[in-house]
Specification:
By secondary structure, this protein is α+β, with helices and mostly antiparallel strands. Helix content is 47%, strand content 20%. The strands form two sheets. A six-stranded antiparallel sheet has the order 1-2-9-4-7-10. The chain has a four-stranded antiparallel sheet with strand order 3-8-5-6. It contains twelve helices and ten strands.
């Protein structure tokens, strides 16, 4: 059995049903899907997604990221993404490991293992795809393998997670992870602004204030915000509003006018136009089409 087959076997046994499965290890989830899934809006927190089997697609603004067992995804800040499993079947289900990225742990590792002289630190990005290395795959196997030895989890899981973070920090595409580890980096300045926008997206949400939170001038803020998120701050706020409006209509059975008002729209027609632009159809029809198709267990895909 090769490395990848081992990881497929481990995740398959510990995630026996479709959906997102918590584990006894904080910040570690296993995911399974036995068929392709419809695109679903979700907020990606700072996370590593390592696929053992199948293929997934994440759309951030106008940019699409497709990843599989050969490529892992890193989300470096909180981002509104449309995610979908695009390759999966009952005989070969989509199986993946999701690990929350601890910025404090990354910072400690970055201090201990600084970038080598001459190593280029490129501009940060909110989502990045990287090639899965044998060393990272081995560490992931040992992490999930601890579920077969639960008495070892307390002692060994923190060490194995730290090794995975080390592999991310010292791997061939470590620039974004190093930005995450630097408290004063442009990436973390934008991350602070994103947290503020997420807390205030229902209101006027003055972009000048978000720039102040980031500690940047308005023009610099726009430039770096788009580099990280692929969107302008206003487009980002609109994505957040549409995701919440969709949740209100699908999960809480709110009507379109009420949902639009609750997420900050005064004009129902403007809300409908923005919603149709992002989701491809008017809000009421889209909610009716998707209501009942998404279960809570699917939310982690």
């Amino acid at each position: 059995m090769n490395r990848l087959d081992t990881l497929v076997d481990l995740i398959g046994r510990h995630a026996p049903a479709d959906g997102s499965h918590e584990t006894p290890m904080p910040g570690v989830k296993l995911l399974r899907a036995s068929s392709p899934t419809m695109p679903m809006p979700v907020i990606y927190a700072p996370t590593l997604c390592l696929i053992a089997q199948g293929t997934k697609q994440a759309a951030l603004g106008e940019t699409t990221y497709r990843y599989d067992p050969a490529h892992f995804l890193v989300a470096s800040v909180e981002l509104p993404v449309m995610g979908s499993v695009i390759e999966a079947s009952s005989s070969h289900p989509y199986l993946s490991l999701q690990l929350d990225l601890d910025s404090a742990e990354l910072s400690d590792l970055a201090i201990r293992y600084p970038a080598s002289a001459g190593e280029e630190v490129t501009s940060p990005a909110g989502l990045t795809l990287n090639r899965t290395t044998p060393a990272l795959l081995d560490a992931a196997i040992r992490l999930v393998g601890l579920l077969d030895a639960p008495h070892d989890i307390d002692a060994l899981a923190p060490l194995t997670i730290r090794e995975i973070l080390y592999r991310l920090l010292t791997g061939p595409d470590s620039s974004v992870v190093r930005h995450m580890a630097q408290a004063d980096s442009r990436l973390n300045q934008i991350a602070r602004a994103i947290v503020w926008i997420r807390a205030h997206f229902r209101g006027p949400c003055r972009i000048e204030h978000a720039a102040e939170v980031a500690g940047m001038s308005r023009s610099t803020f726009h430039l770096h915000f788009k580099a990280v998120t692929t969107m302008s701050p206003i487009e980002f706020r609109t994505q957040l509003r549409m995701q919440e409006a969709r949740r209100l209509m699908v999960s809480d059975a709110a009507d379109a006018a009420s949902a639009g008002f609750q997420v900050g729209y005064e004009s129902p027609s403007q809300f409908s136009r923005d919603y149709a632009r992002i989701f491809g159809m008017p809000p009421a029809r889209h909610a009716s089409q998707t209501r009942g198709q998404i279960t809570p267990r699917q939310a982690g895909y």
